[in-house]
Each structure stands twice: as C-alpha cells, then as structure tokens.
Amino acid sequence: MKQHLIIGFGTGRSGTTSLSAFLNAQERILVLHEGRLESHGRANPFAWDGAEEDLLAWIDQLLANTPDDEWIRDIGMYYINYVDAILGKYPETRFICMQRPEEEMVQSYLKWTPKKNHWIVHDGTTWQHDSRWDKAYPKFETTDKKDALHQYWTFYTQMTRELEDRLPGIVKVINLAEFNDQLCRESILDFIRYTGVRNSDSRVLENSYKHKKYAVGRKKIHNLFWSMKRKLVGSPGHRWFMKKRPV
C-alpha cells in the first residue's frame, strides 16, 4: 500500500489543531500535531533550523510505524523551514499552511504565552525560558514582545507566499476564516488526493480569538440579568418581601 505524506505548518494559533481534527475524522488518515503520539500527549517540536537529519529520521520512523494508514501527517510551525529537505527525500509530499489574520494571531499568542517569549533571545530575567519551544521559533531584534510577534507574522507570511509561488500544486494555503466552509474542506481533501469516504460536512470549531469575544458577550448578558434581578427583588438578605411590615 502506497503511503501519502502530508505536512502542515502555520504560525501557530492559526487553526492547525482544527485542521488536525478534520483530517483525523477521515478514514485511513493519521494526523499528528507537533509530534504528539497521543492526542493529549506532550509535544515534541523540532528546532527552527539545523534539524534536517533528526526531522527526516522522525518522518522515516513515522511512516514505518504506521503501515495501515495511507495518509500520514504531522503539523508544526517549524516545518516551513524544511520543505525542500522533505521534498528531496519524499518528492510527492503535500504541504498545507493554515493562515490567520495578523492581529488575531498576535492577540492569541499574547494570551497563550503570558510569561514566555519565544521570539527574542533573552536571559530569562523578564521572560521564562522554555527548553522545548524557544528553539522552535525564529528570533527578532526587538525587546517588545508584541512587536516581535508582528515581525514573526510578516516574516512567516512572506515565506509562505514564496513557497506557494515556487511550488504550485505542492503547497496550499488555507485561510482560517474559510476553513469551516464545506467547499474549502473538500478542496483540502482533493489537494491531498484523498480517495476514502469523506467526512467534510461537520463544522470544526477553530481556536479563534473572536470566539473569546462571544464568551465575553455571554458574560455581559449574565451580569446584566443578575443586575436587573437584584434591582427588582433586592439582593440576598435585603429583599423587600423579607422586610418587616410596619405595625
């Protein structure tokens, strides 16, 4: 049985988890996310550069240990730097990049990494060192984390455009806003040459910053409801129907 290798990448906080869930819902597809061998396991990211040998050895092992799956996929932001190395050994590989609007990605990372900064070189005084993830991102010449994230998005997006232009039919970019459209999901399955039974009509919820706005909206409605109730019936212990009537 011929195995098809699929590699996913994106800035992170860009919908790659949702893409993994969607592809894993198809028959005969095995999708890992950042080297996790189990859905809730520990991620095993590669370094942003200089890890060609280890990364190709990992792919060899992944394919050898999953003979019953026809489509094998792993996802990680660092894979964008190894496209040519992977194609050199596996020329039929297909690459999918998840792309998210700049400000949404920046805000999501700021919330996701409040004590860490993977995008600058630092001494651990202001930011915590992270031995697993610091190596997985490029570094930028700035002391401001938000500025580094904006530079990261711009840098990554430019790399993606260059790959898409240079490797048409091999690299496909998916905008997160379009991901829940069925036609978009069908195009992904067409792109990876999937021939199994398709499960593309179920909506996949992405990790989106806008969803957190909805949560804030629900909280406001909840607070408004209880505020109105207190005005109408009084707060606990001070309700009008519990007060003593005058004699």
CATH homologous superfamily heading of the largest domain: P-loop containing nucleotide triphosphate hydrolases
Gross morphology: globular
| Estimated share of beta-strand residues | 5-15%
Largest sheet: 5 strands, parallel
Trace the largest sheet across and list its strands.
Answer: 2-3-1-4-5
Second-tier CATH architecture of the largest domain? 3-Layer(aba) Sandwich
- Unreliable stretches (pLDDT < 50, length at least 5) are 206-233, 235-247
Mean pLDDT: 84
Question: What's the domain count?
Answer: 2
Helix content: 25-40%
Distance between the termini: 92 Å
CATH topology description of the largest domain: Rossmann fold
Q: How would you classify the helix and strand content by structural class?
A: alpha/beta
The radius of gyration over CA amounts to 23 Å
Name the helix and strand elements from N-terminus to C-terminus, one letter apiece. Answer: EHEHEHEHHEHH
How many helices? The count is 7
* Count of β-strands: 5
CATH class of the largest domain: Alpha Beta
Structural features, described:
Strands 2-3-1-4-5 form a five-stranded parallel beta sheet, with helices on both faces. The termini are far apart. α4 (102-112) packs across α5 (145-166). β2 (29-31), α2 and β3 (71-75) form a beta-alpha-beta unit. It folds into two domains: 4-113 and 143-207, Rossmann fold (3-Layer(aba) Sandwich); 211-239. The chain has helices at 16-24, 52-64, 83-89, 102-112, 145-166, 182-191, 209-233, and strands at residues 4-10, 29-31, 71-75, 94-99, 171-175. The relative contact order is 0.16. The chain is an alpha/beta fold and 247 residues long. It is built from seven helices and five strands. Helices cover 39% and strands 11% of the residues.
